Batch of 4 targets.
Target 1
Amino acid sequence: MAGQLPFHALTIVFAAVRGSDPSPDTLRDLVFVCRSWADAASFVLYDSVALYGGATAALFNRTIGKCPQRAYLVRTLLLALELDDDAAAGRRGTDEEGRQLVKVLAVCPNVVNLALRPLPPSVRPALLAAIASKRLDTLSCAPRLSTPHATPFYASDLVSLVQPSLQELELDCWTSSLDTGGALLPSFPSTLHLTHLKLAFAGAEKLILRLLAAAQSLEVVYVYIEAMFEDPAALASALMPSATTLRSLTLKTNPPLEARPGQQSPYPPAFNRILPHFHQLDYLSISASEISPEALRFLPPSLTHLEIESITDFPHFDFSSHLFRVLSSTSFTLQTLIIHDDGWRVDEAEAVRIVCAGKGIKFACL
């Protein structure tokens, strides 16, 4: 009786089975229970594929060699050397493992969502060629894709990675390969449709700014950089094209200092000026080096969550006292305020908590 169900109905059944069981073993068994189930079960089974290591990739490639039509079913693909990211970071995969993994991407023409973990450096040209042949919606290259034993990506490679069709991009690169020193910066397509951008770099500030500026309809932005931004005004300007669409913004530096060494004023003005223009912004998490307590006077009415990370490192600037003064004299639509700073005294945190409670704001000092 079940074998007579319509194909669409069977795919719904098998999708429910996959959702209730993280392991694909159940679906593999269903393929062999009834011959008429095989196509529907395969349609669900091959929609999302995660391969860890060269051996599993080689097995997949042999299967595709016998049933080439199944390669057309793959839309979401994860390629990695190990299931555990920490284990993969400490292992240099063989060239053959890398070739088998990249071959999977090359033979699956309909992949639109691609996640990559560190692969052997030798496969970089083939990997970039395989990516360039796709029309991706999402691309995640993380975590720490450019480790000493992993695929090095260079600034010029980003033109291949950042396709006009791309909607979501995550890059986690920690070598100097992306730091061009201001030279040979790539020109990105003028028709980028990125809505989600997550970048974690050791440096490459100019590259970050160019990417932000090229995407003019960003909704979610996460940027972490192992340095302080040298030009906060340029960073603010790069975000302005997305002012009417941005809903969530995270900007974190290391260290997240309250003031810049040698700076005359403790108030970096760039973000203070642009914040009122972000009419859709609901979530803001930012290092204190890029914002000041005075910016609280300019928060857009849409903002409900504000998180500030700071290090009390300069005796001439007490973040808590300024924050308390601004909070006491300004009305807010905030629902949550979180401060990351182990330099606060207990009485300072309690004073701010009381002021926030009076304004209906949940406050935490971590």
Note: The longest strand covers residues 168-173.
Target 2
Amino acid sequence: MNINLKSTLPSIILILLLGDNIAFGQQRFPPNDPFQNKTELPQKIKRITQNENDEIISIKEFDLDRNLVFHYHKQMVGDFWRGKYITMIEVYEYSNGRLLKAYHLHSNAGFTIWYYQYDSLGNNIKVFQQENDYDDQDSLINKNQYEYISKILTLNDLINHPKIKELESKSNRYLLWERSYDTLGNLCQEITYSSNGDTSLIERYNFDQNNNQVYSNYQLSDEISWEYFYEYEMEISINEDNEPLPKQPAKLIQSVRLDYNKLNQNKRVSEIQFYKYDEKNRLIEYLEFREGLFNGKTIFQYDGNERVNKKTHYIRNETEIAINQFYEYNKEGNIIKESLNDFRTGEKKSTEFQYKYEYY
């Protein structure tokens, strides 16, 4: 017989912060991100295409090792916007499974190329960047100047595109960030630089004895900084002989962001987020508060095969459903249809996405 005990890995500051005022702040993906898709990619997957009716919304291409090498995705802005969509493209080049180079294209903001360097242990310690800073900067603001990238639908299209060749030949390469790690390979510090060499952001991370990230700090300037505190719950199982069984991964149950502004001596909580799980350790509820007010909640439901088949979203109103999402899968467990019902305008607006899988 096995016995399960729950142990909370506390961050005491969480309790102390709840009485403070709340204000809005930026959010990064949390450690042990419960929103990450845990489903493995299909064997021999080559391409996944997502369509909304006849409109291509997303294309993902993979190499034989199932590394993502090409990602095309579009986001609807509106009929008032030139081209209606913002288009974004990323391309990744690998060597022996290690990422060496990445292209980032944005139809409204321009292009960048990242070059990765590693230490002897395989940790990414530096990234250098090229960007199309030779373009007229005024023309980059809300005009979708690079709308033509929406025609780039394959890896070969991008590599052979004249604008990419122009970027590689005309722009200067500069150090974008430096990273340092602890003896376990955890990222401990990242320093980001602007093109003139000035430091633009310093990020620091701390981990507990179980190797969970419990704290992160972001220093934007001498005056402005913010930090995150993370709290976990871990199940400790013992057998009938009182011997511990292998540890289960810790579950993120709460995160808090605290903002500082030395100019006005202001310190405040800007976000509080809660994560709730069922007896099978599946995420069933995400709850977020900003500025002391309810900001959002998502309820997750699962089918008999442990797959999410419905998400219910509440946005700035705890009692009215804003969006329902439904998922259908094929026999291999891959999503083939996603349906979305949006009630935010007071009327139901339905959208359907189809997924197509191609294989080597």
Note: The longest strand covers residues 224-238.
Target 3
Amino acid sequence: MTIPPESRHAVIRIPPRLDYDTFENIFLREFKQVMESRSENITFDLSHTRSADLMEAMALGIAAQYAISEGRHVAFDVPTRARFASSDTVRNFLQDWYLIGAWKRTGAEVPSPQYDTLDTERLLPVTDLADITLANLTQELRSRIQFYFPTFPQNQVESLVDAIVFEASENALLHAYDPTAQPGTGCRYIAVRHVQARHTTPETDYKSYWIRTLQHLSPNSDFLEIIVADGGVGIYTRLHGAHQLHLKRNIPDRDLLEDETSEPFCIAWALSEHRSSHLTGPRRGQGLFRIVSHAVNGWNGAFYLRTGTTRVACLPNLGQTVDHGVLFPGTQIRVFLPIQNRESQLADVNFKLARIWESEN
């Protein structure tokens, strides 16, 4: 996309299929170009979009919030029934997941109203964490999980609600934005859904290599998908100083190398057992490491993280893969959990985490 230097209005045309690949390779590059231009008004044009991945649709709100914080006016051009009958699918998807309302909360102009809808796969629609307490969030989600999955062992329910959802949501609330920011500033989204193995739709026909790998490992399994996304400062900005102090304590006899203090190394440390937070208690203070341990080792699922320019995927028995993309605000966490009985494996994870906590305290 070429933007004339004198242009004050830029239109970013969202691809017909908004998924992991098109978001990373098309949208982010165009968004970067627009933000480097003089454009005062930005339109995200979804008029030709036919399907959207949930996480990337949530990320459009983060992009809008960032542009608005930089003094731009942002509008969404959302398909309507009168324009394209074939656009019903994406329009209904945006309504069903309350994305219209989420985008409006950023301050963006969205002409369509948000309606209340019903969706059988939706365990928790896109919700701003500023609108709900963590206690109410976990209580509501626990009740829904127990209702829809009554055979889940109790430690599996608590793993999902406490170790994954609570931990990721708390990180977004406490660490995403500067503590001096105004209350309600920014985007802190969460969504949870049930993905049925035999009910493939354009929105669940995933292109992400790591999701396809997980589906290959558990071909007949339904999944739970948890997304927690914010548009804050990102992990590297928040933890860079703490990471350097950690390195200096462990390597006191020489100067640190540039690679050792880089974003990928900092993210790897944040995901490891060596990183602990200010919280105390046998189930607290292990942050992202606790989420990864439960999701990958406990559930035999997948963990994905996008922050800054770094993307990390963790898969069972395959370790971590790291790649790099265009800079994007905040931190987005996505977890895929096969719906299987993993009671004994989660008990092992809890035992190992407790031992690690005891050794550090």
Note: The longest helix spans residues 154-175.
Target 4
Amino acid sequence: MKKFYFFMMVILVLVLCTSCMKNDGDSAKLNDIPEKLTGEQGENLLADAEIVIPRDIDLSKLDILTADWLRMDSDKAYELFSGNQDLPLFQESTIQKGEESVERNVYEIGESGMLGVSQAQIFLWTDQYQLLRRSLRSAFNAPVVNESLSKFSADGDLPFMTREKAAAETRELLAEIGLITCDTYEWRLLDAQTLNEQEMIDSMNPEEPPPADWAQEDNFYYFIFSQEIEGLPLVNSIQLAEGSATTVPQTTTECIYGKNGVVGVNLQNFYTKTGVKDADVAIISLEQALEQIKNKYNNLISDEPYVIERISLEYFPQYEDETQTGYILSPVWSFRVKCPDQITPDSDHLILSQTDLVLVDAISGKIIV
């Protein structure tokens, strides 16, 4: 009888060890993904992509989360961005969030700037930001790699502060108002020379105001951060194509940092975890998600290839039900794909390349956006 029990214990240990090895293997299949994807991916598709995924959590299974909208600390935001001044109130209004009405106060700051604070939305448009916003009108609220911002460098540091320190200080300010962001982000150097070149292009339009004259010391860092929940970033609406099919409020985390600190901020539509809808859901591999991208772009007719430039694993907010009052956060594979320049069929007008953001449901494998 003792031999029988010993024999059964040996079998049980072997089964448990085999199970653990299998789980470790499944986990490694995702967590051992390389940092880059390069080369041909089909007839019309190339890859030169950075793969941005967390390397310190098990990615073989993820939770589908229930969520509510995040209430930011509006009083703290006013304290941080007002410059310790009593700003004149410009407007009082409300923002509708589901069934709630959220108060928003907008203040005058500087000669033409505005500071708007509420629990749902915060924006800081200083005088400098207003000028930048005009110069980069096609850049704001659009992908960071769009035509205007792509003219600016994403390499090096500015004289007044390193990029890493400027990003760290900005993220600390966001954390003080309740917004936790990922340590990976997208950015550009808004240097005076390129800003003036853009102003000269704009000045050719007689309906535009006179161009700004940016001095050499007028340099800025432009940051797009992503909110972090459970170790993953949330899809940022600033990356979604205009007219995207999704109607769920997407996050926007845009900040501009100059020699005197933060000069521009756009923050809205953040989420907070309230629970777990489905735990430890198996997700598809990068290879499976990539097949969906290949099917989408290899069927398109083009003289030049489409290029995958960035891949990441993120949470994507969706409505929990038709009442549109609660949310779920589901994992998605996110692909940034640069499209080739095109000539319109009815003219010789050149359409400059745009960048698509394609989201693949990491559970069903279907393209969402």
Note: Residues 12-28, 138-145, 241-245 have pLDDT under 50 and may be disordered.
